[in-house]
Every structure is written in structure tokens, then in C-alpha cells.
Amino acid sequence: MKLYLVPTPIGNLEDITLRAINILKEADAILAEDTRTSGVLLKHLGISKPLHSYHIFNEHQTVQRIVNQIKSGKTIALVSDAGTPAISDPGFLLVRECLRNEIPVECLPGPTAFVPALVNSGLPADRFTFEGFLPHKKGRQTRLQELAQEERTMIFYESPHRLLKTLEQFAQYFGSDRLASVSRELTKVYEETVRGTLPEIIAYFAEKTIKGELVIVVQGKEPEKGKRKRDRSTADVEEDEDE
Ligand code: SAM
Asked: pTM of the prediction?
């Protein structure tokens, strides 16, 4: 009786752990955001299992049914279309309900888009905030105003058709000297990471037809004078611990 959350590749099919494959093989059933997408992966891995749909539109209704299934002794694995379930994907409601019912929950470590994007950015990775997708309309302006004061590195998921608008708003709210990066198509054939100030990145993408999946990483606000500089190295962190 257990719920596993199993990360799956964000592009390159080799990015799945041996343990993830074993858990998928051993589970009584697999819940998938899109059964066709996950069906392709499972076929590639040679796994044939009952595959049920679990997506954002039926999440609320199906949670209780799944909890009851697990309580009856089943082991269920949840996967999303790509990356780690519950990270800008369905999963949180099921995890919370399982925990409320004293069902053991285990999320395997594995692929997720924001970690390689953060590390590739070259911006401080010691403290960061993952913002996922910004609200499209209601609350967007307030969120941008709040984030203008954020000193930690910020990570955003974005779709290609909104990229330029979002970068322009970042420049408007955060200032045009902020450094940033856009990682596109991570782990895939046309992977690229573009780094620079916000206007430099806007100029780069304004020239192109923007395609694929994207993660934006933006430098946090410089701390006010007198506060500790934030470009901390590992050595700085160790030094702090010795203080
Ligand atoms: N659960 C996923 C994870 O762990 O990263 C995120 C799913 S969310 C619905 C999809 C978004 O993740 C995309 O719009 C994009 O912002 C980001 N993403 C996923 N795969 C990516 C990739 N290969 N390269 C860049 N961004 C990616």
C-alpha cells in the first residue's frame, strides 16, 4: 500500500533512473496525466501495466477513489507528461489526501526542468524561488510587483507565445540591467541556453520564431548597500557556517 511519484524524462528518453523503471514495473497500476504520452514511454521501456488517466480536470473527483484503491492494498505510481509530478503538474492534491489517510508517499528523485535551467543560468543557485507559471491575468501585476523586491534567483516556466511579453514585463518591473537566462528544449536536440541582460535576451528572441519548451531564470534584486553581497560561493557558505 503506497503512492509513488515517478519523474519521467523532460525530453531525452535516457533520463530515467533504474529505480523509476523498477517502480513502474512493480506498481499495480500507473496514473498518467495523458495516457497516450505515457503509453509511448512505457512501451519504450517495455512496461505493460494498467494505465489510468489522472489530469488537472479530473483531479478533485478521482482523488478519493484512488485513495480507496491504495487503502485496499494497491501500490500506485503517478507520472506526469514530463518531469516530476506535482511540479507545475497534477499531484499535490493526491499527495495531501494520501497523507491525510496515513498512506505512505514517496517521490523518487529525477528529471525536472527547473534544476538544469537554474544551474545552466550561471546565476546564484544557493537560494532561489521557483515561481512556475505566472498568472496570466488576475494577480499577475501584483505578483510582478512583489517579485521586483525578491533578492533570490527566480525561476519561471513559460510558453513560447508568451515569452517576449513576459521578458518585457520583467524588464519593466525589475529593471533592464537584471541578468537572466532562457533555457529552451532542455535535454533535446535543439537545446540552448541564452544568457544576458533582459533587453539582450529580448533582442535575441525577437529575431526568431520561438518554439519548444522554456524556463526563464532571473537574477534577484541586488541587496541594499550594507547588506551582504549575494554572489556567494560554496566557500562563502562554509565560511558562514564556521562563524
Ligand atoms: N513537471 C514538469 C517539471 O518537473 O519540470 C513541468 C511540467 S509544466 C506543465 C511544463 C513546463 O515545464 C514547460 O512549459 C516548460 O516551461 C517546462 N519544461 C518542461 N520540459 C522542458 C524542457 N525540456 N526544456 C525547457 N523547459 C521545459
From this structure: 0.93
